[in-house]
Every structure is written in structure tokens, then in C-alpha cells.
Amino acid sequence: MSIKYIFITGGVSSSLGKGLTASSIALLLEKKGYKVAMLKLDPYLNVDPGTMNPFQHGEVYVTDDGAETDLDLGHYHRYTHSPLSKASNATSGQIYDTVIRRERKGDYLGKTVQVIPHVTNEIKQRIADCANQESNLDVVFVEIGGTVGDIESLPFLEAIRQFRHENLENSVFIHLTYTPYLKAAGEIKTKPTQHSVQMLRSIGIVPNIIVCRSEHPLSKEIKDKISLFCDVPDRAVFEAIDVEDSIYEVPMMMKEQGIDEFICKSLNLENRKTHLNEWKKIVSSIKKPKGSIRVGIVGKYVQHQDAYKSVFESLEHGALAHGYKIEIERFEADQVSEAVLKKIQGCDGYLVPGGFGERGWEGKIAIAKFCRENKIPFFGICLGMQVLVVEFARHVLGFKDASSTEFAPETKNPVISLLSEQRTVQNIGGTMRLGAYPCKLQEKSKAYSAYKKLKISERHRHRYEVNNHYTDDLEKAGLLFSGRYTKQKLCEIAEVKNHPWMVGVQFHPEFKSRPTEPHPLFKDFAKAMIQQSKKKKGDR
Ligand code: GLN
Questions:
Q1: Model confidence over 211-265: pLDDT tens digits?
Q2: Which of 1, 287, 436, 524 has the fewest CB within 10 Å, making it most exposed?
Q3: Alpha carbon of 383 to ligand 1 centroid (Å)
Q4: Which ligand 1 atom minimizes the distance to the CA of 432?
């Protein structure tokens, strides 16, 4: 069977949930037994999102092979088992970089180098690379970032137009639009959708399927109108109304409307049974939780919806593993202090996620101290682990000036210092310690009780590490370095021994959790929070 391609574009507005729509449809096909792969094409000029401010772009999702990628890859991971690697995300910056390097090498043999065909060919090559990364792929999903009508997405749209022309029988175009409800008129409006499709058609793309994001269900009349004006069969108009409780309901909502069947027919794929039981169970336990726990996230970008996307999702997975619901409370790290902590009604546990830069550093230390002293569950991720270690060095070992050289280059006690391999690094893009590294766990540790195995592999994105000069002293004082990258003697996990659950990890476990396969550390963190919440109730 030849590989099938599903292209997803977005119109009218950004943030409609193309990534979620793509992931949900991909899940439906995966659950029919098709092997899917996902690719995100991003029109911006940054080579990758690694250098962008989280306020601009949200989370940077890291793959095993060390690519710093768009956060939609996190959705792809949580919904599907698509391979995710450098071949799963390409930006205009990467495409132009490749084309210009080839021009400098003389690869174009004196030709004028142009958007068509040189840039578009490179984009098509990226689609082929994604499709060829494994030998047994059935369906490749290609999501185009941005909104149709943006100047910078034109080369991508032209490339996928050509791609379809060359793979007519094997491609389907899905256009995701927005159908707003005008309160004054009391009706749903289709005009923005019509315009968006007109714009697509003017560049030669005729969508096969239209998915409308909407706050209200679409009547038959509205669907007929969209079908007529956008020139798709009425069965090809689907609605994506706001889900009630969880984004994990979206696949079932799409399935109920028969989008999988329509796609299979269009691509000449056998419409096999979709095995969604596991997913249905997840959604029903989200809807009927046994109880709830409250976690406090202490970070710099807590007000941004997407800056800690995978962390938020993983927390939900961890709680769900015990049938619980998670409530997330957000704390601006630079407004947290011991005085503030004494005043607030406490959460059942706190998490300090990854981060860069000094702002909020002392607030994060304050929360770690509070959790350690009051035996409240604490989970530190990457910078959060460095916080845990510095706090311990300051207040248990008594090294008052202990710090990370990232924030205090002159400190006499650099408990966290630059990785030796980082000392010669000049460029900031793509140069951190990135991607998967093996880690060896120590038996009789919280880490081992979570993973239940001695060898694990997790993904990294950092420049600083625990300074081995201090590890003996720290261990003697009650910290346990329960996970190490033995090849370079790097400390990857730190836990406080005399404490219900205070664990810090130098890596990013949030990139590997799924609702159906919750990450063991998030699962155990949730368990500790459940115990803490019961204890609190008992104390009252
Ligand atoms: N800023 C820290 C470092 O570079 C932590 C990085 C992170 O949290 N991702 O080591």
C-alpha cells in the first residue's frame, strides 16, 4: 500500500487547535491499526523554537534525538505513538538555512535560487523524510502552522499543493476554521469560513474536509451552506465544539461524526474497527473522579496557557492513574516568599518546572524550603531539581551563599555549575545538553519505587549540573542522588531522604507521559499528594 498523506491547515484565526485536531484524527487511525507519523511545518524564521521566549511560543518540546521542537509534538506524543524526532518538525528558518548552505556549496549549478522550486522542493523533501523515517508507516499527517493568509506560510501551501498534485490518490486536505456565534444576530456565521476557503482556493488548494471550531453545534442548514459555498460534500463538514471536561474527549467527538470513515473512504483505506475502549475509560474517569488534589506550580510563565503544557498534562495523567482530578494553582515565582507561604492555604504539593534566568529564583528556593520543612510533596524538574539541591545546601549544610553559577557566577559555593562540555559553547541555539541519555537508578530510592527498574532513559535540555565537588557532603546531610548518568558521573536525580516525597530530576519526564501511560514519577507524585490531602483532612 502506498503511504497516505493528510494535510491540515488552519483558517480565520490562530489557536483553533490544529494540533489537537490532527492528533485526535491520527489517534482514530492508529486505533484502527494504521501506523501513523506526524510532521509539523512552522512558517516562522527561527531555526527552532529553542531560542524563543516562552511567552511568545509556549513550551519547547524535546525529542529523544535532541531536537527542540514545537509544542504540538507534545500533543502528537500524548495521543499517538508517532515516531518523534528531528524529522517531525521543520521551520522556514531550517528550510532556508539548508537552501542557502546548498547555494554556497554550489549545488544549484549557477541557477537562480528561488522560492519555487528550491524552497518548495526542500519542504517536499522534509515531508518525504518524515514518511521515510520508518519503513512501515501507513499515514503521514502534515500540519501547517499559522493561518492561511499569512505571507510566510505561502511557500508551505505551495509545496503541499504540489505534493498533492504528485500524490493525488493518496492525499486529503483538512481545513480547520472558526464559525463564530454572533450574539446580536443570534446565529452562527459562516462568512469567515467561506473567505478562508476562498483564500486557499486562490492558491490552488481545494480542501476535502472542513472542520469548524464552534462554541455551539452546527445546524444542518449551516453545514449545507458551508458545503455549498466551500464546494465540499455535506458529509465533509464536521464540527469541533468546545469539549466539556477534557481535551481527551476530542477523538470520540470526531469519531461520533464519522470523520474517520470519511477519511478512509477518501484515501481508499479499509475502514477497520476503531479500538477506543482505553480512551473512553480515561474520559469517564475524568468525568467522575474519586476526589481531587491541588498542586501549586511555581514558575515564571505560569500565566501563559502553553508555557508548561506537558507538565500540566502529565500532572493530570498522574492524578488520573489513581482516579483523581488535579487542580492546578499557579504561583508567580517572583512573588513567592516565606511570608507569602505562611499566609496562603497550602496545596497538597508543589512543582517547580524547568526555567532559565534569575527572575523568581529566590521564590523557587523559598517554596522548596517550605516543602522540605513541612514535609509537603515537592517535585522539581530541571531547574526545579537545581533549586532543591541549592536549598538543601543553603539550609541543611549551612552554605548560605550556595547557588548556581547561572545566577551567581562569583559564589563561593557553586553547588550547581556549568557542564564542562558547555564551557566552549558560543551560539545559544541548539547547543544545550539535549535529548535522551541513559540513567542508572539506585535501589531503595523513591525513583526506583516509581520506575521499578534500574535503567531508564529520559530527555534533557540544560547547561548546568550538580557540582560533584559537593555531592558527598550533600549525601551525608540527607540528600540522595538516586539516579546518575554514569558515563560522565552526572547527578540526574536528587531526593530528600527523610521526607514523604521530595524529588528533583535534571531531565524532563513530562515529555514522555500519556493519559494512557502516565509517567511513573508523576504517578507517584500524585500518590504523595493524595496522602498529603488525606492527612490534611484528618488533621482538621
Ligand atoms: N537553566 C538551567 C540549566 O540550563 C535549567 C534548564 C531547564 O530547566 N530546562 O541548566
A1: 999 999 999 999 999 999 999 999 999 999 988 889 999 999 999 999 999 999 9
A2: 1
A3: 5
A4: 4
